[in-house]
Design goal:
The complex is a heterodimer of chains A (about 325) and B (about 240). Chain A has about 325 residues and is an alpha/beta fold. Chain A has helices spanning about 45-50, 70-80, 95-105, 110-120, 140-150, 170-180, 195-200, 220-225, 245-250, 280-290, 300-310; strands at about 5-15, 15-25, 30-35, 60-65, 65, 80, 155-160, 185-190, 205-210, 210-215, 230-235, 255-260, 265-270, 290-295. In chain A, helix 3 packs across helix 4 (about 110-120). Classes of the chains: A alpha/beta (about 325), B mainly alpha (about 240). The interface between A and B is medium-sized, with 32 and 24 residues.
């Protein structure tokens, strides 16, 4: 299967500053790729190069087998793009704005009406269609930007922070929409919200200093966490033994590497080499008669992986 | 072609979506009238022509055209919509032309609303309509020249005030390049040929020969090629900024 989108050794320099430093990846139909990374890591710059807003200093972008640098117009017809901040002409209404986009994208009058109706229905834009965009709330503005990106039913969707500024309900809606679209399209989203990656992405790439520093499924990235497979134990009630006593017991359970406190009442038991220590820990807890408030295996902590990888320690 | 027409229509409608269009048209008509009557002695001259109206037009354009054109690209940069526009399937030349033609059409609309002058002289006397038509064509072409300069320079900045000031200065140089203000600067050291060249760029010289009733192809070609060159530079700037960031 050939990739919908193929990026090879993309480099962007602004003067002496290298914003993107040799990024390569492929996205297949059905994949949702999440770009993660600190501000200024090069996520948006990479997106701007894929969509043809910025010209790369070096490297290639291939959209559905079309060289996007040699045939920019043809490549752009296949891409739907939500730029950072969802820019739109402020004095236009969403209705006029979407008509404008549809017309530039060459949709016929009938198709235009149907698509605009379907999309504005899907993302609940109907009731603001005749208000100037500058008077809309941040959430509605973002949805106008999304509608614009989806209008021509593109094969490739590039969404720069699609849920930024949305309230929790709207975030849920947008993630739902992305999941719904995913099987038919190749999608790239960038986000600061780590749980969003687990919620919608089939694959995540962590970018720092213009390079890809990690690339894998959200599960694989979580597997890199030192919390992965650790057992978290919460003790309840008064008269519990103190942390040092508990640690002295737990550290003797086979496979346990170390024991650390996590807040007031929690204890994290780290296994050696991601071994499973659940049984040993639970047997010990019942043997000692500890009152257990919570007991679970940590899948790994994305924020910790993110910090470790992007700060390089 | 289709995409260019779409941009053209959006831009032209954009002028009328805000008070900008109406403010501009009212001020344009008031100032042309004031100039024609007070400075140009429209009635006192006792001539059935529109010379007193057209003579001062370059000086009005000098401020009003940059005011119309300053937003063409700088506003797109400021609001970030340039990123949207340039990632749509439209070529840079089509986007530049669509925007320029919309602004030009708008100036054309404002210019056409000066028709009562024409009616007045026709009523009061027997003007040479050929000269008046030629003068209107010349006025429109000259507006295109000022507008192409402004459009090009507005692509350099996201600040509309800077776009306005720089465009006005450059337009001023083109307006007066046939007069001592500019020629004294260069005539001391530059070869005669260069001085003649610079004098040849004067909007006023070319425009005056048109409104004087002499339709010389060279004057028309001058304005047309000036528009072409500045719009080409406009396209280069947009393309260049993609790579320079």
């Amino acid at each position: 299967m050939t990739a919908m989108l193929e990026v090879r050794n993309l480099v962007k320099q602004f003067g002496h500053f290298t914003a993107v430093d040799g990024i390569s990846f492929e996205v297949q139909r059905g994949e949702v790729l999440g770009f993660l990374g600190p501000n200024g890591a090069g996520k948006s710059t990479t997106m701007k190069m894929i969509t043809g807003f910025l010209g790369p200093t070096a490297g290639t972008v291939t959209v559905n087998q079309v060289d996007a640098l040699a045939n920019p117009i043809m490549a752009k017809t296949r891409i739907g793009y939500l730029p950072e901040g969802a820019p739109a002409y402020p004095d236009m209404t969403p209705a006029a704005f979407l008509n404008f986009i549809a017309s530039i994208r060459g949709l016929g009058a009938k198709q235009r009406r149907e698509r605009i109706a379907a999309i504005t229905e899907r993302i609940e834009l109907r009731r603001v269609m005749e208000q100037p965009i500058e008077t809309l709330s941040k959430g509605f503005k973002r949805r106008v930007g999304l509608a614009q990106a989806l209008l021509h039913d593109p094969d490739i969707l590039i969404l720069d922070e699609p849920t930024d500024g949305l309230d929790p309900n709207q975030k849920f809606q947008v993630r739902d929409l992305i999941r719904e679209l995913a099987p038919e399209k190749a999608i790239i989203i960038s986000t600061h919200i780590l749980e969003e990656v687990s919620a919608v992405c089939s694959r995540a790439m962590i970018i720092a200093h213009g390079r890809v520093v990690a690339d894998g499924t959200p599960g694989e990235l979580m597997g890199r966490s030192r919390f992965h497979n650790a057992v978290v134990l919460e003790l309840k009630g008064d008269g519990q033994p103190d942390f040092e006593t508990i640690r002295a017991d737990l550290i003797r359970v086979p496979g346990v590497a170390s024991v650390e406190p996590d807040g007031d009442r929690r204890v994290v038991v780290f296994p050696k080499d991601s071994a499973t220590v659940t049984d040993g820990v639970s047997q010990l807890a019942s043997a000692r008669g500890w009152q257990i408030g919570a007991f679970y295996v940590d899948p790994g902590r994305m924020d910790e992986v993110f910090r470790t990888i992007t700060q390089g320690n | 072609m289709g995409a260019m027409t779409t941009v053209f229509r959006r831009e032209l409608a954009g002028y009328f979506a805000t008070p900008v269009a109406w403010v501009f048209i009212v001020i344009f008509l008031l100032t042309t009238a004031a100039f024609a009557f007070y400075l140009g002695n429209f009635f006192e001259r006792g001539q059935a022509d529109l010379l007193s109206f057209f003579t001062y037009l370059p000086w009005l354009y000098l401020f009003l055209i940059p005011a119309i054109g300053m937003r063409l690209w700088s506003e797109e940069r400021k609001t970030g919509t340039i990123e949207l526009l340039l990632t749509l399937p439209i070529s840079v030349p089509a986007a530049v032309l669509g925007k320029f033609l919309a602004a030009w059409a708008f100036v054309g609309i404002a210019l056409s609303l000066t028709f009562p002058f024409w009616l007045t002289v026709s009523y009061l006397g027997d003007p040479d309509h050929g000269v008046i038509i030629a003068s209107y064509i010349g006025a429109l072409l000259m507006a295109g020249g000022y507008l192409a300069i402004t459009s090009c320079l507005s692509a350099l900045t996201q600040n509309q005030v800077i776009a306005f000031v720089v465009s006005t200065v450059v337009c001023f140089l083109f307006t007066v390049s046939g007069t001592p203000i500019v020629l004294d600067f260069v005539s001391g050291w530059a070869p005669e040929m260069l001085v003649d060249q610079i004098a040849g760029f004067s909007f006023i010289t070319h425009f005056q020969s048109i409104i004087g009733g002499v339709i010389d192809l060279r004057d028309l070609v001058f304005f047309a090629s000036l528009i072409g060159v500045w719009l080409f530079a406009n396209m280069i700037i947009i393309e260049y900024k993609k790579f320079a960031g």
